[in-house]
Amino acid sequence: MKVNDDLVGTVLGNYTLEKVIGHSQFSTIYLARQFHPGRLVAVKVVQAQAPRRDDFFLRFRREVTNIARLDHPHILPLLDYEEHDQLAYVVMPYIGSGSLEQLLKREGKLAPQQILAYLLQIASALDYAHSLHAIHGDLRPTNILINAEGRLLLTDFALAHLFESTADADMEAALYMSPEMVRGEPLTHYSDIYQLGILLFQMLSGHKPFKGESTYTLMRQHLQETLPSVAALTPDLPLTLDRVLQKATARYPSERYKSVGELAQAFAGAITMMDRPRQSLAHHLHFPISNGTSGEPGKSEFVVAPVSPQLVAASSRVPVQSVPVASNAAPRTADFGFSYTHEQVMPLPSTIARKPDLFRYFVLKCLPLFAMVGIGTLAVLHILGAFATSSIPPSEQARLAVSQYYDDLNQHNYRAAYALCSPDFQRHTSYERFLSSYQSLAHNDISFKQSIARSPSEVDVLLQLHTQEKAPQGTLIHYYRWDGLIDRQSDGSWKIEQITLSSAPSPDDI
Fold first, then answer.
1. pLDDT at res. 306
2. What are the TM regions of this chain, as residue ranges (predicted)?
3. Which of 116, 329, 489, 492 has the fewest CB atoms nearer than 10 Å to its CB?
C-alpha cells in the first residue's frame, strides 16, 4: 500500500515536499527543499496504519533516536526527524546517484569480486550497528544506496520495527523476510544475516530465490523451504558458495553465522575456489570387464568413457568436511576430497600390429633431449634478462612502480594495485584487508620528495601523500609522509616491499 501520495507541495517543518521519488513498505519518500540552508534532502513520511496504535509515535521517537546516533561511513545519517499533523517523518541527505536495486536491474547479476567489495562495506556498517544494538530489519536493494563515488550507504534502519504485524507486508518485503520475522518474534542481528544471505543470492544469480503470487506463499517458503543451489543455477560459481548461503539463511538463528563479519569472511574464502579448476564429472575412469576378446599383449589403445548416472549420483553424495575459520585469521576454504580430472582414459586391447619405423623411433628418442635444451636456453635468457642492467636508473623504475600503484588505486583497479605489492607484503596483508583500507579513500597531490637507491635492487622512496575521505561530517583531508621500500624481483619487476605512513599536519611538515 502506498501512503501519503498527496503531500506534494506540503510544508513539513523546515522542508517543502517537491515530488515523490520512492516508496517503501509503510512510507513515501519525497525530494524536498530545506529552507535553511536551502539544500535538497530526502524526506521519508511514515504514517501509522489503521487502527492506529496509541503508542505508535512513542515507539517512533524511541526507534529513530536509537538510529540517529549511528555514525558510520556506510550508513546514511539522519539529519532530522519530527512529527507533524499525525504524520511522522525523517530527513536524510539526498543521494541522486541510484541504488543497488537500479544497478541489479541494469546488470542482472554481479561478479563475485564486486559482490565481495560491496559485502565488506555492508558488513562493516551492520557489525557497527549491531554493536550498538541497532537492527536494520529491512535489508533489500532499495535500501542500499550508491553514492557518486561508488560507496554503499545503508538506509531505512529500524522503520520496519514500527509495524509489528506481518499481515500488511507487501510482496517486496516478503521476499526478504526471515523466518522469525514471519513468526512475529523479536528481531535480532540474526535476522539481518538471513536477509543479507537472500540479497547475496540475488546478486550472484540475478534473481530472487523464492517466487509466489501472494505474500502468504512467500512467507511459507521462508518458513519451510531451503535456499536453491546458486552453483546449480550459475555453473561458473563454486559449490562452496552454496554452503555459505545455506548457513546464512538457516531456518533457525542459532545455526547461522554469529556476525555479518563472519559471513563476509566465509564468502571471501568461498570465492577463492574460483581460482581452482572446477570439478568435472563429464567423464570418469572406468575399467572394462573382459569379455574374452583376444588381443595382442603389450599393445593398447585409449578411449574416453562417459560417466554413468550412478557415479554422478555417488559423487554428489560425497560428504563435505567443514574447516573452521578463526575470527582473527585469514579466510580458509574447505577441501571437498575431489580430484580435479577433466578427461579420463582407459586402456583397450589393440588388434592392429604395427611395423617398426626407424625415423619415428629416432625422433621420439631425441625429442626429450631437444626439449630439455630449449627449456634450458630459455631459462638462461630469462635470468640474463632479469638481471641485465637497465637503461633506466633503479630510482626512476621504483618511482614508476609507485606512480602506477596510486594510479590503479584512484581508478579502483584494486587487484592491479595489490599485484604491485611484493609477495612478502601480500603474505602479511590479505587482499580483503587491503581493499577495506583503500576503497574509501581518494589520493591526489602525490609529490615525490626523494628516491635513494640502496643497491641495484632496493630503493627508498619518500613522498608527500594527500588523501580525501568522504565522511558523514564532510570531506576529511589528510596529509601523510609516505616512506616505502621498493624491491626488484627475480623477474625484473619492481614491487612495493613495505610502506610506513606517518601523519603530517601540513605539506610543509613532510
1. 37
2. 362-387
3. 329
Neighbours of 358 (CB within 10 A): 7
Phi, psi of 144 (to 5 degrees): -120, 105
Domain boundaries, the chain: 11-274, 394-509
14-43 burial: b if 16+ Cβ within 10 Å, else e = ebbbeebeebbbbbbbbbbebeeeeeebbb
Q: What is the pLDDT of residue 249?
A: 95
pTM of the model: 0.54
Which cell goes with 294?
583376444
Given a contact cutoff of 8 angstroms between Cβ atoms, the answer to whether 27 and 49 are in contact is no
Give the CA dihedral 79, 80, 81, 84, nearest 10 degrees. Answer: -140
Q: Which residues pair with 304 in a beta bridge?
A: 345
Annotated catalytic, 508? no
Per the listing, cell 520512492 goes with 22
Query: How far is residue 319 from each of residues 167, 316, 336, 338, measured CA to CA in Å?
Result: 41, 8, 8, 11
What the block records as the C-alpha cell of 303 is: 578411449
Of 337, 308, 312, nearest to 322 by C-alpha is: 337
Residue with the three cell numbers 563476509 = 264
pLDDT (tens digit, 9 = 90+) per residue, 237-282?
888 899 999 999 999 999 999 999 999 999 999 988 675 544 433 3
106-130 burial by CB neighbour count: b if 16+ within 10 A, else e? eeebbebeebbbbbbbbbbbbbbbb
How many C-beta atoms lie closer than 10 Å to residue 80's C-beta? 17
The one catalytic residue in 5, 6, 138, 487 is 138
d(CA 382, CA 384): 6
Task: Quickly state the pLDDT bin for 361 (edges 50, 70, 90).
Answer: low
CATH no. of 11-274: 1.10.510.10
The CATH number assigned to the domain with range 394-509 reads 3.10.450.50
Q: Which three cell numbers stand for residue 85?
A: 499533523
Q: Is 495 exposed, middle or buried (0-12, 13-18, 19+ CB in 10 A)?
A: buried
CA-to-CA dists, residue 483 to 172, 414, 450, 505, angstroms? 51, 21, 10, 16
